[in-house]
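User: Thanks for the earlier help. One more: Transmembrane protein 107. Can you show the sequence and predicted structure together?

Assistant: Of course, both are below.
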Amino acid sequence: MGRISGLVPSRFLTLLAHLVVVITLFWSRDSNILACLPLRFTAEEYEKQDTLTLPAVTEMALFVAVFGLKKKPF
């Protein structure tokens, strides 16, 4: 049995941290959208910003899924 290098645990911790950030962004998406808008905004502005925010959050979730499920050589 070989010795575990420092790269595997650090990669796991990086993916875990990224997953926590993605979950937090999905959970607080409404607050983040409101922070991007001016104090007085219309429903159309909110919907537009929500539409622009969703692909970025989805991209981060896909990043975690792809690199988290990638087969790691030993």
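User: Great, one quick takeaway?

Assistant: The chain has one domain: 8-66.
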